[in-house]
Structures are given as C-alpha cells and as structure tokens.
Write a structure and sequence with these properties.
Elements: E1 3-6, E2 14-16, H1 18-29, E3 36-43, E4 49-56, E5 64-68, E6 71-75, H2 80-83, E7 86-92, E8 97-102, E9 108-109, E10 115-117
Parallel strand pairs: 1-5, 2-7, 3-6
Antiparallel strand pairs: 3-4, 4-10, 5-6, 7-8, 9-10
Length: 118
Amino acid sequence: MNIAVEETVSGAPVKLTEGAAKRIARLISETDGSVALRVAVEGGGCSGFQYRFDFVGEAAADDLVIRRGDAVVLVDPVSLPYMLGAEIDLVANLMEEGLQVKNPLAVSSCGCGTSFSI
C-alpha cells in the first residue's frame, strides 16, 4: 500500500519546497502519460551514491507518495532510508537551474554536486 504524505506535514520523511513543486508539476504536465516524478538513490558517482530522477506513469504499491499542489513525487522503500529528512528544492541562479536534493544524511558530496556519501 502506498504511503501518502502531504509535504507540508511536520515530520514528513522527505520535503518538497514550493518552487520545486511548481517546476515538477509543470514538467509532469509537459510529458506524455507521466503522473509523477520518481526520485531514487542508486550506487554510483564519485562519492558512492547518486540521485536518479525519472517521470513515471504510476506509483508502485510500496512507494512513499509526496504531494504538494499538483506535484507528485515518489520515493521507493529502498531509497527512502538514504533520504530521510531530505528536502527537494529548486535551484535557480546564473550558473544553473534545476532540482537539488538537500540531504542531512550526506556527509560529503563531489565537487559537481551530483553524488554523495553517507
């Protein structure tokens, strides 16, 4: 059974900022058949772990489902322990624009910011 949580609930295992939610909702609306953004942690990168973002058409039965406005983010049960307390945010500055996971469990990250270690 899916575990659904509204991002704004205090103590939510993963948070989604308003800016990220707006961007994700817009991107989902521009894809064919996608209803959510899946965020997963997988082995790789120069620091040991990296995030993977994929648009998907449905949630798995055991996903954490995070909703904020029209945005839906899914986190699988294998990735969730690596993301507890994390915040998905939108970064927009002169150098870059995109989603960023701010993870309090990460003790270090690579110079490019795409991988991390716990």
